[in-house]
Amino acid sequence: MSFQNPVFIPGPTNIPEAIRKACDMPTLDHRSAAFGKLFRPAVAGVRRVLGMEGGEVIILPSTGTGGWEAAITNTLSPGDRVLAARFGMFSHRWIDLCQRHGLEVEIIETPWGQGAPVAAIEAALKADTAGRIKAVLATHNETATGVRSDIAGIRRAMDAAGHGAMLFVDGVSSIGSMPFDMAGWGVDIAVAGSQKGFMLPAGLAILGVSDKALAAMEGARLPRTFFDFRDMLRSYAGGGYPYTPAVGLIAGLAKSIEMLEEEGLEAVYARHARLAEGVRRAVAAWGMRPCAASADLYSETVTAVVVPPGCNGTDLVKLAAEKYGVAFGVGLGEVAGKVFRIGHLGMLTDVMVLGGLATAEMCMADLGWGVRLGSGVAAAAEFYRGSAVPMAMAAE
Amino acid sequence: MSFQNPVFIPGPTNIPEAIRKACDMPTLDHRSAAFGKLFRPAVAGVRRVLGMEGGEVIILPSTGTGGWEAAITNTLSPGDRVLAARFGMFSHRWIDLCQRHGLEVEIIETPWGQGAPVAAIEAALKADTAGRIKAVLATHNETATGVRSDIAGIRRAMDAAGHGAMLFVDGVSSIGSMPFDMAGWGVDIAVAGSQKGFMLPAGLAILGVSDKALAAMEGARLPRTFFDFRDMLRSYAGGGYPYTPAVGLIAGLAKSIEMLEEEGLEAVYARHARLAEGVRRAVAAWGMRPCAASADLYSETVTAVVVPPGCNGTDLVKLAAEKYGVAFGVGLGEVAGKVFRIGHLGMLTDVMVLGGLATAEMCMADLGWGVRLGSGVAAAAEFYRGSAVPMAMAAE
Amino acid sequence: MSFQNPVFIPGPTNIPEAIRKACDMPTLDHRSAAFGKLFRPAVAGVRRVLGMEGGEVIILPSTGTGGWEAAITNTLSPGDRVLAARFGMFSHRWIDLCQRHGLEVEIIETPWGQGAPVAAIEAALKADTAGRIKAVLATHNETATGVRSDIAGIRRAMDAAGHGAMLFVDGVSSIGSMPFDMAGWGVDIAVAGSQKGFMLPAGLAILGVSDKALAAMEGARLPRTFFDFRDMLRSYAGGGYPYTPAVGLIAGLAKSIEMLEEEGLEAVYARHARLAEGVRRAVAAWGMRPCAASADLYSETVTAVVVPPGCNGTDLVKLAAEKYGVAFGVGLGEVAGKVFRIGHLGMLTDVMVLGGLATAEMCMADLGWGVRLGSGVAAAAEFYRGSAVPMAMAAE
Amino acid sequence: MSFQNPVFIPGPTNIPEAIRKACDMPTLDHRSAAFGKLFRPAVAGVRRVLGMEGGEVIILPSTGTGGWEAAITNTLSPGDRVLAARFGMFSHRWIDLCQRHGLEVEIIETPWGQGAPVAAIEAALKADTAGRIKAVLATHNETATGVRSDIAGIRRAMDAAGHGAMLFVDGVSSIGSMPFDMAGWGVDIAVAGSQKGFMLPAGLAILGVSDKALAAMEGARLPRTFFDFRDMLRSYAGGGYPYTPAVGLIAGLAKSIEMLEEEGLEAVYARHARLAEGVRRAVAAWGMRPCAASADLYSETVTAVVVPPGCNGTDLVKLAAEKYGVAFGVGLGEVAGKVFRIGHLGMLTDVMVLGGLATAEMCMADLGWGVRLGSGVAAAAEFYRGSAVPMAMAAE
User: Fold this and answer.
1) Any idea which positions bind substrate (chains A, B, C, D) (predicted)?
2) Which of C358, C381, C396 sits opposite D351 (nearest CB)?
3) What is the Cβ-side half-sphere exposure of residue D113, based on CA atoms within 13 angstroms?
4) Is C318 on the interface with B (CB under 8 A)?
């Protein structure tokens, strides 16, 4: 028997029926006009979700990691300096990637559980009087700790420093689930993936690229072919692709954006915030706290729950998988064992989340963590029932 | 956004992925040899699930109601007498069907919440010294009240009365989820549907027919064509069908049985019993009780929950649908308003059931029923965690 | 390896992607408001495709045979007389069904290859001065011989005879593929199935019922429950169903009609006529002829090809299936062996038909029928290329 | 109406039902044990299809272009010299990629329509007495011209020259459709894609990497992260992935290999050869010839048809798409306009190919190319019927 519990990992998310069906298509000649009919609305929709003005959208048959690589190889040259804060596994990995491609990374070490340190970034930029820093890298939503950074604040810091660096933002686990304002925040490259807020299977890196970043592209000397924006943009102009695109995922992306906009982006963000708040109420009822150091840092897509002293979050994740067939996320890197993570992004409902919380409680009871069964569920339920947005059961 | 909560109605059930995929097939010529490759394993599997010895399986592109009609029109003649107890909406409907087809029904009126009254059946059969009763009709699992009747007991009563009537059993909401022993119980026709224990979409009536019932078929004078077993059996013999079969559902039926047998029928029954017991623990924690009058009558596929005085079960069902997008069953007929029903059959897991129970609790709180949030969830969770059968997350 | 050749049987047809996806849905509570959102457009669409004014649409989880049975059991009483012509296997079967349900059938025996004999029908009605004939049964498209009858002509004959009988039409293999005008032709019950012009899997009988037939319903004394229009109409009024409906097929029916109307019904009919004409050109090029006796009788959905003397059409069908994995239809009844049938209805394209014709030619060559390879294909191709309606490759 | 003609492009291919269903799966936690159950058989199967001994399989969420890039960035360093012949668009693009990554490419210019020139390769290697050439690049099946090169011959040339360079082979449009013997031919890296012989959607680059190439990996200084084999192999060892894998495609790959091996790899290759020969018979009947210069060079997956003087192959491709909804491939680069391409790989049958050929003939007639309708179809049909492997219509 195959049992189909929802997943509670911070991505890939549960995939809506309509998106699965959009992705699952017969072969379509990607050199034909029919491809453009799928591709153009996907691109136009990404512009709206990212809040772009000007610039270009690049969609690569790749993943978020590929998106990070594409961002730097298309705009920078060997030896270029970038500025980045490290405060979780994903900010760490982007830094590591830059170093492996021969960039010099000025790292602001920041405690895990904190967000990107706006003041320190401003200071670093002000100190860079020679303008050696070509780009500031920021992880909007650090998936390892459930921390949302203040990208608007980073933009203000950059402006305050009067520094001309580009701003590259990893929005993989935020875009489509939390407000994102590429133009308003002056983001030069935003990196998203298909498998988070867009609720698709993994397989697409989705980038918004500003005009400023496109200008940098011409002089960038890091080698690239698969990720080369120039080939992409030349092919796009003719309605095509420089190689075989992931047609089904692109069709699914168009459908995803149609669904997000049918619900309304603001409603989508509010739904994520509401579900996240319910999870946090449950965490509080358990006598625990999020890894994120303060309420302004709380991610609306993932909560890293700090487990009690003497407990190991990884035990809970393993038990949930093996005993109950439910997937949560383990702690990574510095917080391995110290947290377990509940993903609450994409297509989720109250009933799904409550089932997930009840499962976490069973695991805690099994592990002797001293949590009262039903306590977290009740706290979340009380919040959900007071804040529910009536909805009919959808036919689709 | 289409939200995909599981359903908690007593059928149709949630459909497993693998069954949806088996049903969703391109057109196959039903007059070709390929059809037999799907049909034969489905038929053979039905025999095993029903516990048949001898007799024939009939699979009609219809529903349980069609199965009831086929059972009587293929074996009885106008004016024939049948014996049936009425103790719920579905036993009532079968009686009504018999009357509409010109049969004389000797009805044993039985309180809703009770099962088929074995002693009264025995008495009625003993009283029928002229042998006018041609068939005893029994509803194995009365879906309206969540009551399981004792079919083995009815067989013993028939034997004790030394009566030669046929025994027809409505197993629509039991077969595939609760033990069924057609040969052992001496059942002459068992009626199942695709959309309950077999976890398929509605669209098939599935019947097990004993040799005794087949003998009666030749002399039966109720008119029928679509439901005529004779046409069916003639066509089956040639690997075909007298008209266009529902090929996809038959493919899905074969897959369903493969899944049930892979898990093991005993394990499937144990799983249903375990999930049902968790639901009943929640009901008790809410201070309520099942409609079924005693523990030996509890259905393992559906619990009709008697709501407190002054409360209306239908209000809960409406609220759950409109506010939370979750489907429960309303009370029907005599128990309309007095109960709401939680279906717990087919592909279900702890996490799904707990989410459903949490949703019911939110509704109760919304309606001011005085139930403590988390109370039922905790009671079910305590039971589930103590009785869980470890399982890995299935890949399929 | 599973090879997915299109089928060339006269139904079930090849199923379009979009329809397969519409049918393949997760379980939806059929007692919820969501069901009505699927059901109402399906019903409204059927009205348009059938050309109804007044009356009601009935959709049964059954097949065309069930539709025939529903038509008579809901409107007639035991001993009632009906008038019908027999000129193929499907007109024969409806007559047989009537007889099995205790009706008296006045049969006009007509050579296979001819259509319903309008003059003979008129004569029979005129002779029925006592008005004993309650209904005239007509098979619009006799699938066994590929003959289309003149329903408008039958209506004129009935009017000329001044006879008040009802007119019941089997449109199973015509509706959705050839023009149908229920109101204009004064049809009282039209029977369609899901698996032909609607391009769905088998599993629905779809009936248009006139106000006159609905009036007859009240007095009809043939027994029925599963097929009872009264239960259906009572339930429909509340947005529901008297038993579990085939929700996925109803969703697919709504999608089917959306697709047919997006193309335009007239365009759909023209497409069928065009593909059929190509097939007939191929048949002529092979030196053969359709079973239909004259051009005005040609079906646009199926061509029964009369094979040369000494040849056996069933051999071709078997060889095509076993050697090439392609499904054609065998001859049935009187024309068994004398014809093979090429279905050309539903979602078909030039390239599909040409592939099918080429396969038929290979079989003819294998069987030594003396047909030149490529001859039929060339004739059809010449016609198709001269009459093609440009189309882009669809994305969906 | 969406019409679903098969495609006749040289990839992506038509996707079998069973593979579409394997790919279309609900979200599975890729960090759970369940992922390994999908991944390990996919990897093991790739080993068998590639004919590997030793070495490692790398599966990247990318495309063939990404596979080319991964091959060189994981084994070479800036300034390294590689040897490659250019005789078509795809051999050209790999050369271009190498140059963009800072490699020095010794190019053997070869007429389009020829294969990799074994003698010239041997001469170049013999001339490289300093051993500066680190790798020989060979395009096994040049998709632009329909030419298969002799990889075994290249290995013999390398051995004859006593040269220690690695041998990298682009098998994107050959692997899974034509014999490939990685161990026997001494291939160090073989690059395949998901969307050709494996019949999946695009989205995976699949590489076989020899132990010799793995040894080179440690010293390779071309920058890479997304494509880095070292991260992959470290993660694989723990049953995981360095980032989110394309789980559905990997499940589909496992299914693809299961299907290929169920048919038998030799039977798969024979089927491709048989279908290709039929296409070439049609081409000859049209009075045309393949672009491949001689019979030993004929590709079994794609035929580039040289069009008559004064004709333009691109016109045919456009017309087929716009008028008939059928996709063929245009000529690329040097042979743009001079050829059109018929892909005949993946899940294809006689009836599909014959339909495609008939469509090409209609286009030729429309364009006034002086080809007799039916001529090519007849030639192919004659060959197919004489060489058919009987098969039943598959149920799946």
Assistant:
1) 341
2) C358
3) 15
4) no
